[in-house]
Design a protein that fits this description.
The chain has one domain. The chain is rod-shaped. It has three helices and no strands. The chain is 78% helix and 0% strand.
Length: 128
């Protein structure tokens, strides 16, 4: 079993969360803590994905303003096309991040199952 070198659960979890992939191998306690650490990183990605969805809505307003300026001849067509292309590229990036954030729900479920298997190993480990 892994030696608990920290005085409480949260500091132990935080130490593993800093680099959970390297700690994912080993005894069941380390694997369970690593799964929690990986899930924390997945949560950060999911939150960023939601932020980008909101940001994407703001980009649509920017594109509407771009169209409005061109229709009033206040912006050249070349500049408007370049700005429009840039806005579309950012929106594609936002879409990819948002889809990735939704995918992590499956990753979180897989980690929860992995943690349960680690719990079974800890509970039914034969004491030597």
């Amino acid at each position: 079993m892994t030696e608990l070198t920290t005085s409480n659960f949260w500091s132990y979890l935080w130490n593993i969360t800093k680099d959970p992939w390297n700690k994912f191998k080993g005894d069941p306690l380390l694997q369970s803590m690593s799964a929690a650490g990986i899930n924390i990183w997945l949560l950060v990605i999911a939150v960023l994905g939601q932020f980008w969805v909101i940001f994407s809505a703001l980009l649509l307003i920017a594109q509407a303003y771009n169209c409005w300026l061109v229709s009033r001849s206040e912006l050249s067509k070349i500049k408007a096309l370049l700005i429009g292309l840039f806005i579309v590229a950012i929106n594609i990036g936002a879409l990819v991040l948002a889809v990735l954030a939704q995918f992590w729900v499956f990753g979180s479920t897989a980690l929860a199952i992995w943690q349960f298997l680690c719990l079974l190993k800890i509970c039914f480990k034969k004491n030597s």
